[in-house]
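Re: that chain you flagged

S.,

Sorry for the slow reply, it's been a week of failed gels. I finally had a moment to sit down with the sequence you sent. For the record, here it is as I used it:
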Amino acid sequence: MASTMNQDVKLTLHWLSESRSHRVLWLLEELNVNYDVKIYKRMDNKLAPPELEKVHPLGKSPVITIQKNGQSEPLVIAESALIIEYLIEHFGPQYIPNRYKDGQDGQPCGETEAYMRYRWYMHFAEGSMMFFLVTKLIPDGIRSQAPFFVRFITNTIASKIENFVNPNIKKQLALLESQAASAPDGGPWLCGSHLSGADFIMSFPLQGVKHGKLINEKDHPKLMAFVDRVEATESYKRASQKIVEIDGKFDGLFSN
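Prediction finished late last night. Pasting the C-alpha cells below so you have them in one place:
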C-alpha cells in the first residue's frame, strides 16, 4: 500500500527505455509514495522521442512533474541527482545519512563519514563517472560506421579516445571498489548499513559497468555484489514489474 504522505500532490515520472530513469522508479517504489508513470520509447536511432520535449525543453529523461492541489502548473524537475535529492528530502529523509557527529552541528569538518560519502557519490555519479562511460561508447560508433577507405584514420582517432578514457575508468573503478570495501558501519550499502540516495544514483553506472563487463568478481567483488544486491531488493523488483504491467514487458536497462 502506498504512503498517504503525498496524497495532495500528483507525482509523475516520465520514464524512458534504456535510461537513467529506472533508478528514479526504484526510488519511488522504495519511498512507497503515490505516483504515475508515463513511458517513452527510444526511436530507432536510440534518441528519446520528441514528445519528451513537451515535458522539458531538453527532451531528456528522467524528468518528474509534481502538481499540488490548487496549483495551476506542475513543478518540473530534471537531472537524476536533483530528482533523487528532492524526493528524498520531501518523502524520505531517512535516506540521507546523519549529517553531523555528536556535538559538532554546524561546525566545519563536523560531518559524519557517511554524510560526506553520500554527498560525494551524488556529484561523482554524473559529474565524473558517466562522462567517461558515455565517452567510451564513441570509439565503437566511429569504428562501426566509418567507410572502409577511411578506417585507418577513424581507428587511429578511436584508439586515442580509448587511451584517454580507459585508464580513467580503471582508476575510478579501483577507487569505487575500495570505497565499497570501507563503507561506514561495514556496509553493505555505499554509505553504511542502510540505503541512501547514494545507492540510487550509483545504481545505473554500476549496472552499466557490470553489463559492459568492465568489472569482474576477481577485481571488483564488492561492486559486483552491490549490483546484485540492488536488483534483489523488493522495491527494485516492483519497479521492473511496474513497467511490465504498463507496457507488457521490460527488456532491461541496456540494449545488447
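What I noticed first: The mean pLDDT is 93.

Talk soon,
D.
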